[in-house]
Write a structure and sequence with these properties.
Blueprint lengths: L3 E8 L2 E9 L6 E8 L8 E7 L6 H7 L2 H8 L2 E5 L37 H16 L2 E11 L1 H12 L6 E5 L9 H11 L3 H4 L4 H8 L4 E7 L5 H5 L1 H11 L2 E7 L6 H18 L2
Parallel strand pairs: 4-5, 4-6, 6-7, 7-8, 8-9
Antiparallel strand pairs: 1-2, 2-3, 3-5
Helix pairs in contact: 2-10, 4-7, 7-9
Length: about 280
């Protein structure tokens, strides 16, 4: 579990680092970023994992969201991994919504994807072990959030691992991939044609089957070009209602799917998680 530091910078009295390591889950080199606020000098802090969306790496959130200001204010460590394995020998697709940059946080079972695309195991098992070994985190206080494909990842991973992740939120998540075009392509490609296997990575199906011990926060822009066809937050709202899970779905007029939207509300999310990870 040795890691290599790629870069480090001072920001808001904390340290923003970028790291590389050889992943057992993906069989490739993987990169991730970690922000550690100054409060870590006095003891372990809560840790919040952020999962990015299609085409992104760790860099999009780290450079564009402005999260460090709020993480410093609330004393939270933030970890942002890549969205898929990359490199020579890793299969890819011509589209932006499948293959490299689009791992969908699943464990692929179909060739040629199954060799490297084990992003679920990477986020749930391998990465937290690396973070616990190398950074001053309190693993009993771990939360997760994400955007779009990463919102899908955050919701499904939390719902299946409430013993690991104590809080979950999302920006414009794909909540029902088994019912939308992005999901049809990704889940069929990674998991095969049996749609019953897709439900294990579908937040609406998981909330119905497993529930959730806490509450959930989702922010959604109403000017989001993907809202009606790909995101379908109303489906998750109905599933939470049926499962008697407390959901705060905030819908914002004029906001799109971009990091302008995320940067506007990321402070609310970090504060929300910090309150639940005390």
């Amino acid at each position: 579990m040795n890691i290599e530091q790629i870069s480090q910078a001072r920001i808001f009295d904390g340290t923003q680092g970028v790291y590389r390591h050889k992943s057992e889950a993906t069989g490739t080199d993987m990169e991730f970023s970690v922000f550690v606020p100054e409060q870590a000098s006095t003891g372990p802090l809560p840790v919040l994992y952020y999962l990015s969306g299609l085409t992104c790496t760790w860099e999009n959130f780290t450079a564009k969201a402005g999260a460090q200001r709020y993480a410093s204010e609330h004393g939270v460590i933030i970890v942002a991994p890549d969205t898929s394995p990359r490199g020579d020998g890793v299969p890819n697709d011509d589209g932006y919504d499948f293959g490299q940059g689009a791992g969908f946080y699943v464990n692929a079972t179909q060739e040629p994807w199954s060799t490297h695309f084990q992003m679920y195991d990477y986020v749930v098992r391998e990465l937290p072990e690396i973070i616990a070994k190398n950074f001053p985190v309190d693993t009993a206080r771990s939360g997760i959030f994400g955007h779009s494909m990463g919102g899908h990842g955050a919701l499904t991973i939390a719902l299946k691992n409430p013993d690991i992740f104590k809080s979950v939120s999302a920006f414009a998540p794909i909540v029902a991939p088994s019912q939308v075009p992005w999901g049809y392509k990704a889940l069929a490609g990674y998991l095969g044609p049996d749609q019953n296997t897709w439900l294990d990575y579908d937040a609406c199906a998981l909330i119905a089957a497993k529930g959730w011990q806490g509450d959930i926060l989702i922010d959604q822009g109403l000017a989001d070009n993907f809202l009606a066809e790909q995101l379908r937050p109303e489906l998750f709202e109905e599933a939470c209602k049926d499962a008697q899970v407390s959901l705060t779905l905030r819908q914002h007029k004029g906001y799109d799917h971009s990091y302008y939207f995320i940067s506007t509300f990321v402070g609310d999310h970090i504060k929300w998680h910090a309150e639940r990870l005390k």
